[in-house]
UniProtKB/TrEMBL annotation:
Keywords: 3Fe-4S, Electron transport, Iron, Iron-sulfur, Metal-binding, Transport. Transmembrane segments: none annotated. This is Ferredoxin. InterPro entries: Fe-S_cluster_ET. The keyword Lipid metabolism does not apply. Its cofactor is [3Fe-4S] cluster. Coiled coil: none annotated.
Length: 67
């Protein structure tokens, strides 16, 4: 089974909260509202939603790789 690894670039995050709203168990925001990844290897039941969150990020700040 493939492992999906999630990283996010807080330097380019636009504080839209979209990813946090969509997947609160995987993404959070720091005190400035910038993205923080809580779970870098979410379970397979979340993979589709993580990919959608990455596609939906307005600044393309979420990177998803499969290993
Ligand atoms: S969707 Fe993108 S811009 Fe919005 S909070 Fe998440 S990483 Fe930041």
């Amino acid at each position: 089974m493939s492992v999906l690894r999630v990283t996010a670039n807080s330097d380019t995050c636009a504080v839209s909260s979209l990813c946090v709203y969509r997947l609160p168990g995987v993404f959070d925001q720091d005190e400035d509202g910038l993205v923080v990844v809580l779970d870098e290897t979410p379970g397979s039941d979340l993979h589709d939603e993580v990919r959608r969150a990455a596609r939906g990020c307005p600044t393309k700040s979420i990177r998803v790789t499969e290993e």
